[in-house]
Structures are given as structure tokens and as C-alpha cells.
Amino acid sequence: MTRVPVVPLGAYLLATVQSELYDSSVTQLEDDIATLAAAHEPRAVLLDLRAVHVVDAFIAHAIDRVAQLLVLLGSRLVIVGARPAVALALVEIGLSATHVTTAATVERAMEEIS
Amino acid sequence: MSETLNGLLERHKDLVLDAWCSIEEVEDVLPADQLRDVLSDVLSGLAGALESGGALEDDEELLVAVDTLVRARGRAGATDLDTAALVLAMKRPLVELLRDHVVARNKHQTAAELVDEVVQIGDISDQLGLMAMRVHLQQQALVIAQQREEMEELSAPVIRLWDGILALPVIGTLDSMRTQRIMETLLTDVRRLDAEVVVLDVSSVPVVDTATAQHLLQSARAVRMMGAECIISGIQPQIAQTMVTLGIDLAELETSSSVASALSTAFRRRGFEVRREAR
Q: Among the listed ranges B42-46, B143-147, B219-223, which one has the minimum average pLDDT value?
């Protein structure tokens, strides 16, 4: 299992998924984001999904939970670079673009939020 | 009895082939030697199929031979009727072969046996004819499927209006399958062309059912999930009613009355200003 690194970056947290997401890595990611978000109080957490091709319901729900959790912590989740299949899977489980911010690239995500 | 016919065919294949190739009713679209080759393959396949004793249409070799024949003639511009006539014309050389065989061997064969063999030859040529027809129909179905695919691609072109602004004019009636395809094209192109705003124009779509409306909406949501904006333009009254009946949260939906106003919204979003220059 590769652990997804969550890096504090100024007022943001950046989590870049390097390969596909798996059940275990996404659970770990949930914990990491929760801990770090509480510690750093970021303005937003950028979840870079550019490398991800497949998202199943479990992972989609995990991402949904992260989004809600961040709202509770006074921050928000930015989905970055979702591929068509990933975007559809996320929409399918009811993750609405009104609950998260989206962007095609990390740069644009930062422009959008600042 | 089947053995007799089979043996005859094996031994006198060239005779039958010669007679078959020189059938006059059939227009020769293929060069003589090519026609001979493909017909020879059909006869070999037929002999093999009779030998094995199974149903003709299940014989792989025969099927391939008939397929090659129909394809070659189809490519050369023969009509389906002509090809069918050619395949059925095999009946006469076979019957003639049988006749010569009886005369040559002066064999005592009862009339009933002879009739049986002729009937069998008739069956064989009928089956070959049907096989040829089936191959022909399959090919036509293939052509239709291809054309349908091309038409579908043409009916939902993704247009790059501006750097980062895409438009997708949807034309014609939408069903679930088409919507699905359009959605796939759209999402792939959003990524490929690095779109920031997508205008989904449905002004040429008169009516949709609830499932399709749901699909359209899902596409709009997915586009947003990919980090682009989706503006649906030109929603017709009937579609609007369908969407309202679905109880869709309109807050998450960006709409506009025409492509023009959608484009101006898109420009605004991207920070462009369009104005007429004072002269």
C-alpha cells in the first residue's frame, strides 16, 4: 500500500495521489487529512486525483466523507483533475459540486480559492 | 447415398467447377481466375462438410469460403440477386454430373434413389443460397451499424469556441444511449482540450424523457466535478417541464436562454470583456 502524502503548503494542504487509490490507502488518507486539517487549519485541502483512473463506491464515499468533515473543520475540499470516469463515479454517489470546489489543475485550484 | 454424391464431388470437382464458372446467366464481375479460386474453395468446403456429415451451415471451412465469395463479389459491385443466382446455379452442374455418372457407369439405380439424390442436391444448393444470403445480410447490418456510429459522432460535435471554452450542440432526439455517448465524448474532451467552461446547447432537442433529463444533469455535474463549468443553454419548454417535474435542484444548474448569452457568461467567467470599439 502506498500512503498518499499530505503536504502543508502555506494556507493549503495538498494531497497528491500518485497511483490508483485502494480501500486501505483511502482510509489512511481520511485519517491523515483529518489530523492535519485540525492541526494546520488550512483554507482548503486540495485532493489531486489526476493519476486516478478508477474510483469505486467505497472510495467515492470516503471522498464524500472527507468533504463533509472538512466543512465541519471550517475548511473545504477541492477535487483536482478528476478524469471522466472518476468524475462520474463521484457524481453517481451524490457528491455534489456545491459541497466541494473543483479545478482541473492545482494552479487553477489555488487561483480559485485565493 | 450421400457417400455417392460426396465421392462424385471429390472425384469430379474440376468438372463441376468448370461448368459452374461458365454459367452464363451470371454477370462476371470478378476476373475469371479469381472467380474460379473462390468457387473452388466453396466446393472443397462443401465436399468437406458432406464428408463430416454435419449440418452445412455449421461447417467452418464452408462458411469461410461462402463469406469470401460474397465479400469478393460485393466489393466488385455485384448485386445481391446476382450472387444468389450464382450460388444457386451450382445445382445444374451437380445434377448433370450425377446424370453423366449414372450413364457412364450404367449402374442400376432405382428411380427413387435417383430422385432422392436430386432432391439432396437441391437441398444443398438451397442451403448454400441461404448461407450466402445470411452473409450478405450480416455485411449490410455491419454497414448500417457503422453508418449509425458515424452519424452519432456527427450529431454531437464538440466545438472549441474559445481557448478553454467548449460548446456541444446536441441535435435531434435524445435517448438514454445517445446521451450516454454524448456524455462520454464531452467528458473526454473536457480533459483533452483543457476546458474551463462548457456550453451544452440543447436548443435543437425538442423533448426528452425523465431518464435522459437525469443523464443530461449528471453530465453537467460530472463536468463540474472535473473542474470545469457547465452551462446548459436553450432548454425547450417541454424539457424545462420535465426537469421541474424531476424536482431538480436548480441552484446547482447554470442555464441560459441561448448559446450567445451562454458565451457571454463564459467570457465573463474567464475574465474576457467583449466590447465594440469606438470609431
A: B42-46
Residue A12: name the closest of A82, A68, A70 by CA.
A70
* Burial zone of B80 (CB within 10 Å; 0-12 exposed, 13-18 middle, 19+ buried): middle
Q: What is the DSSP string of B38-84?
A: HHHHHHHHHHHHHHHTS-GGG-HHHHHHHHHHHHHHHHTT--HHHHH
Q: Which of B226, B229, B249, B269 to mutate to test the interface with A (most CBs of A within 10 A)?
A: B226
Q: Are A57 and A34 in contact (CB under 8 A)?
A: no
Cell of B146: 457503422
Using a 10 angstrom Cβ sphere, with 0-12 exposed, 13-18 middle and 19 or more buried, the burial of residue B111 is exposed
ipTM of the complex: 0.80
> Using 50, 70 and 90 to split pLDDT, how confident is the model at B2?
very low
Cβ pair B228:A104 closer than 8 A: yes
B184 CB neighbours in chain A (<8 A) are 84
Of B66, B48, B43, B62, the C-alpha closest to B132 is B66
